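User: I'm putting together notes for a lab meeting next week and I want to include a structural view of one of the chains we've been expressing. I don't have a solved structure, so I'd like a prediction I can at least talk through. The sequence is below, exactly as it appears in our construct file.
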Amino acid sequence: MTRKKFRYGERWFPSSERSLQEYLINQSSLQISRNDLLRMIRGGEDTYLELKVKLSNPEKISQEIVAIANTVGGFIIFGVTDKLRIEGVDYPEEVISEIVRICREEIIPPIIPIIDTVSFDNGRRIVVLEIQGKHRPYRTREGRVFLRIGTQKREATREELSDLIQESSPMNYENLPVPGATKDDIDDALLWSFARAFEDISETSLSYNTEEFLKRDLLLATGSGEDFTPTVAAILLFGKNDRVSQLLPRSTVTVTRYSGNSPSSPVVEEKVLEGNLTTLFESAIRFIKKYCDLMKEKPKLRIQPSPIPARQNYSENVIREAITNALIHRDLALREAKTRICIFDDSIEIINSRRHTGFVPFVSKAICYGITQRINPQIAAIFTSPAYEIELGSRDFPSMLREAQMFSGKKPEFSIINDEFHLKIHGI
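Assistant: Thanks for the context. Below is the predicted structure for the 428-residue chain, given as structure tokens.
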């Protein structure tokens, strides 16, 4: 038997008959033998298996892959008819190449295909594609979301799409209690400064009881007594600076000044900022001001040429809004993606952890119209409150884009790449 393998590792396939659904749940990878493959084919199409005699319509194939990925996962076998007859494919290498292209270019987020080719004694060869839906919801390049029900695919309803988005978005991460955190990790000066701003409208006078106020009034803690634990939002908003990075290592922000216009340029200075959100915000602004001029109004045109390149000028409102968005919209559930601020000779790029699943329509379209999905609503509400005493910038993302373009004459660039939100603001 000739087989072309596209990944390493072995997988045991059950010798006894069992449903493919049960098998998928209990196993994690796949390499199929001829006997195992024949047993799958004899079972016919179902929610987890699609048979194709050939790959002739990439658009329909992308829809089938999306449908299976959004359901449970499963297989598409090329070279088998609906009547379970093995016809084989003439050029399996071309089929594989096209499958890889479809998974990479026609599906969002891209799927890593797991592919085997199996040859039979009569010379016929078939291609087996395994689909694992690890980052649902998936959609086609046109933004259509499909589900597979039985042997058919159909577009997801509004309710089904909402369930998929809710499943994929870590909306409640900010509400998780932080292991090891106690009331002693809270900066009381920062907390009660915030609370006093509401003293006139509060139903009762402030008790200055940290546990009670965090849990009952702000909903930022769980338990009581020895079991009292502040949440992720509480530590980020009101935690002591020296404890925040210890309790939440992913809360740091890296700021870098490059001597050039790309990340490959030499590094002039790099610093890792630590502390609560107030400290992170103020430290980021100070670092940027070290290498750039933040201005309230657009500067006048320089007439006299200078042999020394001038410092870049940026709208202070724009930069403040951009940093605010980076701090309050971080996808805290992502481990590898870190918040970074990169200062180049001609621009500032802010890179933030933000998975791209859960955005329908595409974030690059919706965000321009002010349509956002706040994954940290408590953090966003408190950080942007006047009582938190942060000097904010533009009112919202669309306003920031307009102001940045009016200031520099260049439209800001933004995109989501590898679970990171990139925003580049040009200077003048």
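A couple of points you could mention at the meeting. Residues 1-29, 358-362 have pLDDT under 50 and may be disordered. The first helix runs from residue 20 to 26.

User: Perfect, that's what I needed.
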